[in-house]
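Write out the 3D structure for:
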Amino acid sequence: MKVVAKVARRIVCPLAVILFSTPAWCARHEDALAWSGMGAKGSMPWGIVVLLTVLTLLPALLLCMTPFVRLLVIFHFLRQALGTQTTPTNQTLIGLALVLTWFLMQPVGIAIHQQAIMPYQEGKISAFDALDRGSQPVRRFMLRYAREKDLALFVEMSHQPPPANSDDLPIRIVAPAYIISELKAGFQIGAALFLPFLVIDMVVAAITTSVGMLQLPPVVISTPLKILLFVMVDGWHLLVSAIVKSFY
């Protein structure tokens, strides 16, 4: 019990509040966060329930607030376009997406460490100040790639007055807008990847039909040709290079 509470105080609770909180939200819900050691003493059993809930949702939330969604969608479209079914495997694609996500988010992590974690460990700022500072780099990253159309949609649905500038938008509006924008970008790149391989499929199908090879599925011939083309042009290098450069 004590070990779980310690993890909640030092790791899980700060991460969760960074995702959702603003200074005003923290002030209103100070009693609800008391179990984490940030306020008055609360109920330990309820603290454990909240901790387990956060542990369940936190990985999905963190992945959706990073480039992981776009990367995984693109890799899935690529595999479908190549027609290789389960090669590369799902574990391989997820691992590659995670590694690239860590690479792309490293500057954000460094900014959070310098602006929030180090001052808090040195006792220069309070826990709520650290949470507020730590959320800013993540919010700026998401704002950079969230479309104005998507941001306006969630501002309208939240029934909030239009902000004077993007810095006034809370994370609860920026995060869903960012996810939608990333999905759109992933589908756009995936559709562009499909086109050259679709041309190969159409040409092979037309040739096999014209010569009367009706008993041999065109995919049996087109799949090796697509793989050969992808290898010859060094497709993985070109794809990863283009994706990473799109974030810089």
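The longest helix spans residues 171-210.
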